[in-house]
Amino acid sequence: MEFLKKSAFFIFVVFILFLFIWALYLPKHDITKTLIKTIEEQKKLTDILLQEATFSENVGGVKYWEIKAKSSSLNKSTGVAAMEQTNGIFFKNNKPALKFISPLVTWNTINKNILLSDTLGFSVGSEQKARLLEKGGNQASTFILPQSQEGYYFKAKVLSWDINSQKIICSQGIYFQKGNVEGNAEKLQADVGLETVSILGNPCKIVIAGAPQGTIEAKDFLIDQTKNEISSIGKIILTADNLKLTAGKFLFKQKEAVAYFGNSVNITYDNASARGDQAAYNTKKQEISLMKNVSLLRKGSRLVGDKVIISLKNKTYKIIGKTKIVIPEEEIK
Predict the structure, then answer these.
(1) From CA 21, how far away is CA 158, in angstroms rounded?
(2) CATH code reported for the domain at 195-332
(3) Which residue ranges run through the membrane (predicted)?
(4) Selection from 242, 233, 174, 249 nearest residue 214 by Cα
């Protein structure tokens, strides 16, 4: 009888974990209601019920997190704890980095992973700003990242963390903003201090406010908060008005408001096309400078020079430096 009881509970716990994985990757109409119902059912099979309990993860003198829960349940056989009405902190280098509030949290003490539902997260001192996201209703997960020394804050439908990667992961329906840059993604992954943030999509698109209407598109973007930079992983495509730029490399220095492109840059604009090894896009001046091994093709003629400058504001382009015009042989005859 005892064996049957343990077997039934084991199957139920596996079902709980399946529901959380399902919530991460295939979200349905109301994840929270499903999790509440599941935790209520788990209480009937749990070994220990606790009120006003504190849980924490400490390994080798390193503290990873601490969670305070108004009520919680723990099964000693499976090592799964379910916590309700929680306040917690993730630590980085033994110092508080990410604070959070979540109505539902599960902790697998064996696999060392945590799953959080409807989480409000914020850096130390940013709780008041984070509370404003609560008024947003049932929208996509939202991450607000600082452009300078301002604190970060976010609202995540489902969030996960594990001790191996020591990263937080949020999937499905993500909106993010970093100063004058905003975009949408399928997945976000970051350290608990949100100093290095990976924005993943298929593709992922960002918009730079103040620049001409258009998008910058790549499979993935990497945000480096310490350097205040955004870079791409793989091919990049920029579209603005009737301009299209492709390159193998992208780096946006937010403080300078300049985006740099490399690894073979190709541009089409109006009835002309140009290529070069590198390009710089000044978003304030709305000007793109194409540099190194530059050529401009227009109406069958090719112009070679030191630099091509395209003004998106004035809708003009010009070639600068020593210029050579290459005319097709058939036009000379």
Answers:
(1) 10
(2) 2.60.450.10
(3) 7-25
(4) 242
